[in-house]
TrEMBL record:
Organism for this UniProt entry: Epidermidibacterium keratini
Organism superkingdom: Bacteria
Cleavable signal peptide: none
Region of interest (Disordered), residue spans: 122-150
Protein name in UniProt: Polyketide cyclase
Length: 150
């Protein structure tokens, strides 16, 4: 498997302003509403991301909690984080969201899952391979439904 197959990217146009969509992504308490992977259950409110270096925690459907280390941040335009077990270094996968305004009411949103630096833990590798474009598309579709509903 090469690095190209370890980076999954999907895009779609959403009929909402970039700032409104970004709020749904940058506020972890809202993420379970649009998670197309059906992997997230809840996040404590008041963890809204504001900068690189922020860490927010998220409870997963398997009962575990993950810390998400923000590694890219441009308000209203781009955010990326690396998940990790509590108190541990991230194992090497990254979730990225990029928002490109088309005009005041429409935005192209691109979601990327990059596991090119993920270690050789077979369980993590299996889970990463299950993160297909179709599953990422599910998140974008749910995000669009929420953003377009206002």
């Amino acid at each position: 498997m090469n690095d190209q197959t370890r980076v999954v990217t999907v895009s779609r146009e959403i009929a909402a302003p970039a700032a409104e969509i970004f709020e749904l992504i940058a506020d972890p308490s809202k993420q379970p509403q649009w998670d197309g992977m059906d992997n997230l259950t809840e996040a404590v409110a008041s963890q809204r991301v504001h900068d690189v270096g922020d860490v927010f925690s998220m409870k997963l459907t398997n009962g575990f909690t993950r810390e998400n280390h923000v590694v890219e941040f441009v308000e209203g335009r781009r955010i990326a984080w690396r998940p990790a077990e509590i108190g541990k270094e991230p194992p090497g996968h990254l979730w990225r969201w990029k928002l490109d305004p088309i005009d005041d009411r429409r935005t192209t949103v691109t979601q990327t899952y990059d596991w090119s630096q993920l270690g050789d833990d077979e369980m993590r590798q299996k889970r990463a391979r299950e993160t297909t474009p179709e599953r990422l598309r599910g998140s974008l579709d749910r995000l669009a439904d929420l953003a377009e509903a206002g």
